[in-house]
Amino acid sequence: MMSRFSSVPFPLRRSLATTVVRNPQIAIIGSGPAGFYTAQQIFKGHETAEVDVYERLPVPFGLVRFGIAPDHPDVKNCISTFNQIAKNRRFRFFGNVNIGTDVNVEELRKAYSTVVFAYGAADDKMLGIPGEDLKGVYSARSFVAWYNGLPGLETLNPNLDTDSVVVLGQGNVAIDVARILLTPVDILRTTDITEHSLASLCKSRVKRVHVVGRRGPLQVSFTPAELREMVKLPDCRPVFSKTNFEEIRQMSQEIPRTRKRLTELMVKTALDEPAPEDSARWTNARKEFHLNFLRSPSKFLPNSDSSGVKAVQFHINRLEGDRAISTGQTEELQCGLVSIYI
């Protein structure tokens, strides 16, 4: 860690005791991308402004460090930009500082010209459905942070002694989780994945991951690049229901240009004969990646001794425009692990 980053148990007293301010002094709460880009704009717009960044964790970079998948190092290239920002003589970083405990907002307001709050959600968003507190049901924040090494989550120990996993949500992070769970461990060893999660994944029995959304293929939020990785993933075959895509193929001229490449890739994967190299790989694959549509979770079902989750009950939906409306029918997906990205 460069010298511009210091980890202290509380803000420096001289910062809070300052009564005479020569230059504008700005406090930024949060050291993720929002915090660093805010500092960058301040430095560009003001030649003398001084910036102090406060962070609850001992290290900076937030979601870039703890949210981006370990097999996507290129996405983390912005860290080099953040390091350049931190080299500015008017920049200081204070880690291990809890706002409201180590220092309160009123103290910061008295010590600084401006206080900018640039942090994300600290708590998980709950679905509010029965069984959400069962062992084996994890939020996006906790599961992703587990394999990315967020301090305090090394002992999460998710249950990978199961054939099937359900991932709720159809954005890029949901695809990231499916990919990490299905990627051969020899490939994961070449990434910067944490040792504790790699050790667990080496013993994983997961063979099938269902990525489930409440709406249809035209409403997914992941990108073509994320899907292409899954389609090409070694020892894994994509399993898409043809009935979800037959009508969409007929609508190809109506699909907005911004979604055309993604939709075409899903349609081709679901309906067309695979290329010879894909056909051979998919035939011999031991793992499966499923995309499930028009399903909203209604309940997490416990196993026989209530020690963990055994299935997810879903309402089956239909679309009215872009809205998902329950048909009143339900179905269950068996699984030993659920990860929520909604």
Describe it for me?
This protein is α/β, with parallel strands linked by helices. It is 32% helix and 24% strand. The chain contains 13 helices and 14 strands. It has helices at residues 13-17, 33-45, 62-66, 78-86, 105-111, 140-148, 172-182, 185-188, 195-202, 224-231, 246-250, 257-271, 276-284; strands at 5-7, 25-29, 50-54, 91-95, 114-117, 137-139, 164-168, 208-212, 236-240, 287-292, 295-302, 309-320, 323-334, 337-340. It has a 6-stranded parallel β-sheet with strand order 6-14-7-8-10-9. Strands 1-4-3-2-5 form a 5-stranded parallel β-sheet, with helices on both faces. β12 and β13 (323-334) form a beta hairpin. The two termini are 34 Å apart. The model is unreliable at 7-15 (pLDDT under 50).
Core attributes:
342 residues; alpha/beta; 6-stranded parallel beta sheet; 5-stranded parallel beta sheet; 13 helices; 14 strands
Rg over CA atoms, rounded to whole Å, is 23 Å
Poorly predicted residue ranges:
7-15
- Biggest sheet strand order reads 6-14-7-8-10-9
What portion of the residues fall into strands of 2 or more residues?
A: 15-25%
Q: What count of helical segments does DSSP give?
A: 13
The biggest beta sheet reads:
6 strands, parallel
